[in-house]
Amino acid sequence: MNAFKPWKILNIDLGKGLPSLQIDEGYQGLYIVFWWYSIPLGHREIPSAQLPITSEQLANLALQTITPVVSDRLLKQGLGGHSAELYQNSRIINSGQRGLMMFDQSLSKVHEYLSRPVDESVSVIICTRDRSEQLAKCLRSVQDLSQHPEEILVVDNAPRSDSTRQLVAKMPRIRYILEPRPGLGVARNTGIRKSTGDIVAFIDDDVMVHPDWITRLLQGFNDPKVMAVTGLVLPMELETEAQFIFEKYWGFNRGYIALTFDSRFFEDHKTWGVPVWRIGAGANMAFRRKVFELVGSFDERLGVGAAGCSEDSELWYRMIAEGWTCVYEPAAVVYHNHRRDTDSLEQQVYYYMRGHVAALLIQFEKYRHLGNLLRLFIVLPAFYVKSFLTGTLKGFGQRRGTLPVEISGYLSGIKFYLNNRSYTGGSKVRDIMGIGS
């Protein structure tokens, strides 16, 4: 078996010219993210075997990658332009840097549209537990935002030391909140209760935000029916095999085209379980404050410290089930620090699966939508039977270590739910806002 080599992440700004790319013997290849100034437009993996490439070849690769994204932007934003023609015309798509220059005017319109000021106050909430080193990097990036939030809150969840309190005490414009009850759902609800912004934004303590993160996130709230907006999560590094496997099979990147998740999406997928996990990731999400009055708060049975995850997607499920809309806006970017070692990855995958299964049962509990049970007891078992048969015949590849823990997490999720059916909290905002029942 060949030893794993890291992938080198390159952020290439198409507005500033393109380099030629050389072979770097220390890397498996290049993971290239194409940007136009502050707007991400797509990424490509280039294995070392395909290097070197010239700047002209790179320009053609960039054109093939970004054209569908730019076309979609112009269409949805009513900006017009010729990018649809470019997408259909292979001669232009393969016209190198000359072809990229034709995008300048269109991309300027997109940039202008996404930079419109939005008059909403924003509270940024970061829930953490005993990870002060990662938290420090996260907080510094939040303090460097081009548009400053109304407030930044750090919710210290059942800490085992005083390190987070000491860190926050040294940093200006950040409020420290102690929440002694363990659980990410509990911590998120405490942050909501203590915050004041019209928009409540959450990031994880192991991310760093792009300077324009808030500005871009707010663009997703242009429709009053939109109650939640998520953003793009890019890997901070791909230095280890565990990080690469996570990004390939479990990563938070939902693509570079803005997406809308509404009642139509819900009805189209209801039969076999609505795939609300496609909406985004809790590492990069925001809500209108009033949505917690309309559909309730985070279910505290879910999330890290409880079932394991899916406290975010279960809340999105309630929103679109009750007629509201969620939006994925990939121009709002954060960078996630994936876990570096295999043991941590397998533990993470176990809890992801356990939380997902518990969320399916909780969604059925609240709405009696049979699709959740069909996904749980038909779709997922069929997927794992097929995965093991395929792996036995053709080899399991990089998922050899994660498939067993996924199944273990699946079974644990059912057990966790059965042991926690009596939960009654979090159903409406009064449960977290201190309002009498």
Strand content range: 15-25%
Number of strands: 12
SS class: alpha/beta
What is the overall pLDDT average?
90
What's the Cα radius of gyration? 22 Å
Helix content range: 40-55%
Taking pLDDT < 50 over at least 5 consecutive residues as the criterion, the unreliable ranges are 427-437
Distance between the termini: 61 Å
Major sheet: size, sense and barrel closure?
Answer: 9 strands, mixed
Number of helices: 17
- Tell me, briefly, the overall form: globular
Order of helices and strands: EEEHHHHHEHEHEHEEHEHEHEHHEHHHH
Topology of helices and strands:
Elements: E1 7-13, E2 29-36, E3 39-47, H1 55-76, H2 83-88, H3 90-93, H4 96-101, H5 104-114, E4 122-128, H6 132-143, E5 151-157, H7 163-169, E6 175-179, H8 184-194, E7 199-204, E8 207-209, H9 213-219, E9 226-235, H10 241-250, E10 259-261, H11 263-269, E11 284-288, H12 291-294, H13 311-321, E12 325-336, H14 342-367, H15 370-394, H16 402-419, H17 430-433
Parallel strand pairs: 1-2, 4-5, 4-7, 5-6, 9-12
Antiparallel strand pairs: 2-3, 7-11, 8-12, 9-11, 10-12
Helix pairs in contact: 10-14, 13-14, 14-15, 14-16
3D structure, described in words:
The chain has 437 residues and is of the alpha/beta class. It is 44% helix and 19% strand. It is built from 17 helices and 12 strands. The strands form 2 sheets. Strands 4, 5, 6, 7, 8, 9, 10, 11 and 12 form a 9-stranded mixed β-sheet that branches. Strands 1-2-3 form a 3-stranded mixed β-sheet, with helices on one face. Helix 13 runs parallel beside helix 14 (342-367). The longest helix is centred in the last third of the chain and has 26 residues, at 342-367. The protein is globular. It starts with 6 loop residues before the first strand and ends with a helix. The model is unreliable at 427-437 (pLDDT under 50).
